[in-house]
Design brief:
CATH architecture of the largest domain: 2-Layer Sandwich
Bound molecules: adenosine-5'-diphosphate
CATH topology of the largest domain: Heat Shock Protein 90
């Protein structure tokens, strides 16, 4: 028996309640640098560091006395040369020969400790890298999108100037390349954000029918331009999915615009949705087209970033990022995306998402703001709070062209607040990155001041993150437009808000 115990691959130690070692097997003696039997009769303190003694007296021994056993306890034993040996122990307390014996089995944890240390280091490095990536992305988002505001903004202004044919062609080239670059920037940033775990994706019950209607309406102009008929097969009104509404709309728009872009002349696109019978907890959206389809060997390359499957050689514009982004988004919402395609006949892209209970109807949107202090001469007064000279210049030009507007400008948050209180404009355009007081703080200050609380405020920001948009709309902004400004949309929003004030 003693031989068996001595040669066991685990260490064994038995001590009495006074801490005297009754038996230590040869394996343990060897680990700790002692001759066999050399530990018998010694105090257990000889094997414990200062910290180990405290642990033994306050935890291990009381635990044994209380429960009669202690399982998987990690601590260190002191070797004869003073170095420490990480161990895991299982201990039991038994009555033997009229006294208590505390029997412990030890397993060395050298490698585990090393792995744990390595894991900890790797975790720290990953956290630091992820933080650096988040900072980099937010900076890049701003730095890349801001100059695009000038390129696209002034380009759009030039487009409506009386230009000769060759000048017009140049402007169109600038705008086309600018829009392509903007799309690329947005998609690369979006994918990077998802991969860096920087995207917050909400999960709300959304009516499938409403969402399809929205996506359908938004794709119509593109379809008309391309001569493609888009049809929608509405699903029952109670069908709902659990998803992020902005992201799901983005997904459907992406599939629809692909189905239009890669279709044949006079082709057709069908948007449909069904509750899945074999998986009743899932709703499937399908976008079916009559395009050229995708060959079996190319199907495997779909959903990869920058993979255009040969379309790069053709006329159809694209970045090769839409489907890669869609896949990441769907998966982040707990769903799946896929495609069935027959070459020469067409493709059917599908998205499966978890089904949800139908949401109850939200109350009607906020009451219109009453008219506030328009200029005496009938001109609308708009205050633009912005510190970037190029952006100010652009909006000045847009307003001059629109007419009927007196533009006030402030380049810092406090100056903007002051001017808003004294001039009480009809509308405030607000940049978010302002010196001295951020646009977000200024928005809060304007909303909490009774003199300015009802003035419509439109945020103009290069930050297109859906979470930021939602947060600022909740904080009281009437609209949120992302830079680069889309001229037509900008004008429409301004016209609507000014009409609301006048009404
Ligand atoms: P993009 O359209 O910007 O090139 P996507 O990631 O949306 O990028 O699509 C990747 C590629 O997949 C496209 O370039 C195209 O070759 C192919 N593709 C996507 N949708 C369809 C479709 N409905 N029919 C045929 N090919 C498609």
């Amino acid at each position: 028996m003693d031989e068996l115990l001595d040669n066991s691959p685990g260490g064994f130690l038995s001590f009495d309640d006074s801490g005297k070692i009754v038996l230590a097997n040869a394996t343990l003696c060897e680990w700790l640098g002692y001759e066999a039997r050399a530990l018998d009769g010694k105090q257990i303190d000889a094997l414990l560091s200062m910290g180990g003694r405290i642990f033994y007296q306050t935890h291990l021994f009381p635990l044994l006395k209380l429960h009669g056993r202690a399982d998987e306890i990690y601590f260190s034993l002191k070797r004869r040369d003073g170095s420490s040996l990480a161990v895991m122990t299982n201990a039991v307390r038994r009555e033997r020969g009229g006294a208590f014996a505390n029997d412990c089995v030890f397993l060395p944890m050298r490698q585990r400790r090393e792995f744990e240390d390595e894991l900890l280091e790797a975790r720290k490095a990953a956290d630091a890298a992820s933080e650096a990536k988040a900072k980099f992305l937010s900076m890049m988002s701003h730095e890349l999108r801001t100059p695009m505001n000038s390129i696209l903004g002034f380009g759009q202004l030039l487009e409506i100037e009386p230009l000769d044919a060759s000048q017009m062609e140049c402007v169109e080239q600038i705008l086309r390349a600018g829009r392509h670059l903007l799309e690329l920037i947005n998609e690369v940033l979006d994918i990077s954000r998802i991969e860096a775990g920087q995207v917050t994706i909400s999960a709300e019950p959304i009516s499938a029918q409403n969402l399809m209607r929205e996506a359908f309406a938004m794709t119509r102009p593109l379809a008309e331009l391309a001569g493609i008929t888009v049809r929608m097969e509405l699903c029952p009104s109670e069908v709902a999915v659990l998803a992020d509404p902005i992201r799901l709309r983005q997904l459907l728009l992406n599939l629809l615009s692909n189905a239009i872009k890669y279709n044949r002349i006079n082709g057709e696109v069908r948007l449909a949705c069904e509750g899945r019978a074999e998986a009743s907890a899932t709703v499937r959206f399908t976008v079916r087209d009559t395009g050229h389809g995708i060959s079996a060997e190319k199907l495997g390359q779909l959903f990869q970033p920058f993979e255009r499957l040969g379309a790069e050689a053709g006329e159809i514009e694209g970045t090769g990022l839409g489907l890669a982004l869609s896949k990441r988004l769907v998966e982040a919402m707990g769903g799946a995306i896929g495609v069935e395609s027959v070459e020469g006949e067409g493709s059917c892209f599908w998205i499966d998402l978890p089904a949800a209970e139908m949401p109850t109807l939200a109350p009607a949107s906020t009451a219109p703001a009453p008219g506030v202090g328009g200029a005496a001469d009938g001109e609308a007064v708009i205050l633009y709070v912005e510190d970037d000279a190029a952006n100010l210049h652009l909006v000045r030009k847009i307003m001059a062209r629109r007419g009927g507007v007196r533009l006030l400008e402030a380049t810092t948050g406090p100056a903007g607040l002051q001017l808003a209180r004294t001039a009480v404009p009809d509308l405030i355009l607000l940049d978010r990155q302002l010196p001295e007081m951020s646009g977000d703080e200024l928005l809060a200050a304007l909303r909490s001041d009774s003199g300015t609380s009802r003035i419509p405020i439109v945020i103009l920001s290069a930050d297109a993150t859906p979470a930021q948009v939602a947060r600022l709309l909740k904080a009281g902004a009437d609209d949120y437009l992302t830079k680069p400004i889309d001229l037509a949309q900008f004008r429409r929003v301004i016209d609507e808000l000014l009409a609301r004030c006048a009404g």
